[in-house]
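Action item from last week, closing it out:
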Amino acid sequence: MSVEIYQPILAKTNSASVFPVREDEPEYAKLKDPVSKEKNRYGNNIDLIASDAKPNSLNINGVDEIGPNPNRHKQHAFHFTADNCIGCHACETACSEKNDMPAHLSFRSVGYVEGGTYPNYTRMNISMACNHCDDPVCLKGCPTRAYTKHPEYGAVIQDPDICFGCGYCTWVCPYNAPQLDPIKGQVEKCNMCVDRLEVGLKPACVSACLGNALDFGVVENTPENRQQCATQIPGFPDPSITQPNIRFQQIKTLPKEVTRTDSMPIKYQKKNEGDAFKTVIDQKKGTQKYWNIKRLSSRENPLVIFTLSAQAAVGVLFTLLSSSLFKHGSLASLTTSPVYAVLLVLALALVALGLFISTVHLGKPFRFYRGFNNLKHSPVSREGLGIVLFMGFLGLHFLLTLPANEWVRARVPAITSLQGSTAGFASMFAGLALLSGLVALYYMYRCYCIKARPFWNHWHAAATFYGNMLSLGAIVCGCTATACYLLNASSPLPLWQELSTFIIAGLVLESGGLIAHARDMKNGEHEGSVSHYEQTTTFGYTYIARNTLMALNLLLATTLVFAAQLLPESLANILWILLACSIVGVALIGRSLFYILVIPTTMPGAFFWKNKGFEQHARDTGLANLPQVGVVPEHLVH
């Protein structure tokens, strides 16, 4: 059964490019699926609507006609025969031409893996686009709800007009399908060429394939003259992450080890014939250690500041509200002094600064309000809501504590009469603010629980975030109070002694998480182990310095708890301030490494395309200034 070209749709199009059809379309370009199965191999229905449901129009560019394909509401999928792919990139070209893509973007890309030795040297090409998954993590992760999985063909379609350019979908997708345009500041991706499907044609990339490597049809249907309909191929991420709708054939024998041609230090190995290929480290750069301090700065610098400042702000409130643990100590007296209001304002300023910087970081900052659109699924939306509630409740708490503030009462005596009526509400909003802050940090951690990024997908992220909350919050309180105490010729040492409990707890929690993380990444058979290799080589000396300083910070903090009374007061104060600066510095280094080192479970790239090494080379040598090279110069990045 071949779906014929649907003339009523073509008659209503306002542009020849909307439903591109040639006068004599060949048979291989037409959809053909006489029968299909009921369930796919993941156990999900292939038919995406009930048999008695009324079909809907996709309204592509205002055309409301409905295509006549009897399989219109069944999940469709690409089929890729690796043995046939010759690496000509015709699929990329056809896709880019149809979607009018700039040179630096492509919804479909061809990468390579290779292995063996002469004369049995083998290369396998891999053509990959969006897989329109049964469980699209991009849809669940997107805070703006720019993604929709349609029952028509099972297409996962993204609306760039809704997107505000956070790029989170590019993090969670294992296949590098969503493309963040750094110039436009928005994401776009393959839409399965639903306009062509509506008139009975296969996607443009399939129709353009010279080697008959790409095919398309209802999922689980094995194309003509094909023997396999497998879910994996060397270099392809674990299909359990998203249940992708792509099937493979790869019959030709491959070596037990194949490497990537891009700069990623990754190769794929299998122990025995019939085993699946697993990701292992490819020591392309050797084992030499480097500092690479300049490379600590990245596009994610705003997120470094946002996460640390938010954690410090929540930590300030946590520290202040924990003063009941020290009933008659310096911390308890701090909560009844004018410094308390200063600390609340400082906490508000920290979280506001971080939120502002992270918002400016968006591709389209003025659409920030759309970040709450997907509270049902997206941890980014939930994190943002938690931060906003924390700020709101903390602001109300601050206002309601003013009647009890000595400095305010001395200047506005009339406010004293409100103290009795506001105290209860102030405590309530303080509790709500702390609860909101703790929940926000939990969803901040959940934002990085990404299966496609094993280096992040580890409980050490939670230990680090809450550890930084404890240590940085206490440091902000200590440094602020120290300045006030010294102005009043008072000693801040008793306060530091009490704050040391939070500082040491935070350092121990963070250190424990990092030790477990290093152990698990080192022994893993995934991209996380490759990130750890980069951590101990490309940034080896920086990594060692961070760990050494963290150990020294913990030792110094513990020593000062017991030995501060034996030291001159001025020296003890200096040591506490130096310790605070060192902890902040270590936190900045550690958070920068956290973002820089992550290697996603993405598809292999080519020598010049989808290759981070070549992109950097192009920027360093000026090649990036040539638009046709397909690398965006740094000065044009949004």
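Closing note: The chain has a mean pLDDT of 89.
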